[in-house]
């Protein structure tokens, strides 16, 4: 696949000495949806701000569609659309003029047909003549998306795009995101709704304390880090797990009325059969069983918890 965004050895340390990013290396492919996950303060917004030319890097390089974000800023920035977390627009202008003006800022010639298409896709067409200040919060968010798309960017950054928005807007947005991806636009999003990343993203990146700790295809991430659990509802409660069953790492739950067996996604099916035979040998009878699989949120939380146990590197 063609790399449209390449980040090499990128770091950012502020004058205060705070190190926001450290040695970020990341390649984003054309026409993929890439989800960047991380806790508050992990460095997501700083990274996006540097790529979009809002914040200067301390060191490193960012190449956007062949253009260096520092030495060829205008060309690089013209390929990028950004939906920031904050609502920032002229409240006294109409929707149409606001979106059209944003297109002009990037030197694009007027294209009423394209602007109309964007507004209709975002359910804004009937509001095109309304002043921004008269719109609801959800409608203002739609206008911000339209502004980000106004100059037909090849890369679209969505920084917490669905935070605080209604279900209808969230549905419309993801429908639009899929259509943009299908038309060749690369989508990079940050979100606190990890279920959305699980549904939408092709690849997942996890950032912690300004460092990328993991990047992988979503399916591979689920395969390699996902776990399954077999929960057995017992006929009679146990006080403890019999010693002969210790090899299976079983956990007692619900006052001894459930046994939980956690195993790897690709564990041999024979392991479960052996467990069931061992239970029978111990005269442990179960009345029901069910299996559950790790979600992306489970994987993310476990990764962050494990990383919190590691010391953070000092800024250099």
Which fold does the CATH topology of the largest domain refer to? Rossmann fold
The tally of domains stands at: 2
Gyration radius from CA atoms, angstroms: 25 Å
CATH class wording of the largest domain = Alpha Beta
Mean pLDDT: 84
Shape: elongated
Strand content: 25-35%
Q: Per CATH, which architecture of the largest domain? A: 3-Layer(aba) Sandwich
Structural class determined from secondary elements? alpha/beta
- Beginning-to-end CA distance, first to last residue: 35 Å
Question: How many strands, which pairing sense, and closed or not: the largest β-sheet?
Answer: 6 strands, mixed
Domain ABC transporter: 5-234
Keywords: ATP-binding, Cell inner membrane, Cell membrane, Membrane, Nucleotide-binding, Transport
InterPro entries: AAA+_ATPase, ABC_transporter-like_ATP-bd, ABC_transporter-like_CS, ABC_transporter_ATP-binding
GO molecular function: ATP binding; ATP hydrolysis activity
Task: Summarize the structure in words.
- With 316 residues, the protein is an alpha/beta fold.
- The protein has 2 domains: 3-223, P-loop containing nucleotide triphosphate hydrolases (Rossmann fold); 227-293, Alpha-Beta Plaits (2-Layer Sandwich), CATH 3.30.70.
- The protein has helices at 44-51, 73-78, 95-105, 112-121, 137-149, 167-182, 194-200, 218-225, 269-281, 296-308; strands at residues 3-13, 19-29, 33-37, 59-64, 67-68, 80-83, 155-159, 186-190, 203-208, 211-217, 227-234, 251-253, 258-264, 286-293.
- The strands form 3 sheets. It has a 6-stranded mixed β-sheet with strand order 6-7-8-3-9-10, sandwiched between helices. Strands 2-1-4-5 form a 4-stranded antiparallel β-sheet. It has a 4-stranded antiparallel β-sheet with strand order 12-13-11-14.
- A hairpin with a 5-residue loop joins strand 1 (3-13) and strand 2.
- Helix 3 (95-105) runs parallel beside helix 5 (137-149).
- The two termini are 35 Å apart.
- Mean pLDDT is 84; it is low at 310-316.
């Amino acid at each position: 696949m063609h790399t449209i965004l390449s980040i090499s050895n990128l770091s950012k340390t502020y004058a205060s000495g705070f190190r926001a990013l450290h040695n970020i290396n990341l390649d984003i492919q054309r026409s993929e949806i890439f989800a960047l996950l991380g806790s508050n303060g992990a460095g997501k917004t700083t990274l996006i701000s540097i790529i979009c030319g809002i914040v200067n890097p301390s060191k490193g390089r960012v190449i956007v569609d062949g253009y260096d974000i520092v030495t060829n800023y205008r060309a690089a920035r013209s390929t990028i659309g950004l939906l920031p977390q904050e609502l920032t627009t002229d409240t006294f202008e109409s929707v149409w003029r606001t979106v059209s003006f944003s297109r002009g800022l990037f030197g694009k010639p007027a294209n009423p047909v394209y602007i109309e298409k964007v507004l209709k896709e975002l359910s804004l067409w009937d509001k095109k003549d309304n002043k921004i200040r008269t719109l609801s919060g959800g409608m203002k968010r739609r206008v911000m998306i339209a502004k980000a798309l106004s100059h037909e960017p090849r890369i679209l950054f969505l920084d917490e795009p669905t935070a605080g928005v209604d279900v209808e807007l969230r549905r419309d947005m993801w429908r639009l995101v899929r259509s943009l991806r299908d038309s060749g636009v690369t989508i990079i999003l940050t979100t606190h709704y990890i279920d959305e990343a699980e549904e939408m993203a092709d690849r997942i990146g996890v950032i912690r304390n300004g460092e990328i700790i993991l990047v992988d295809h979503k399916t591979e991430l689920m395969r390699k880090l996902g776990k399954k659990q077999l929960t057995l509802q017992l006929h009679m409660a146990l006080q403890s797990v019999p010693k002969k069953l210790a090899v299976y790492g079983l956990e007692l739950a619900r006052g001894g009325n459930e046994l939980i067996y956690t195993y790897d996604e690709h564990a041999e099916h024979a392991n479960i059969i052996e467990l069931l035979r061992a239970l029978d040998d111990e005269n442990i009878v179960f009345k029901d069983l069910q299996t559950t699989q790790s979600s992306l949120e489970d994987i993310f939380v476990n990764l962050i918890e494990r990383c919190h146990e590691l010391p953070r590197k000092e800024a250099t």
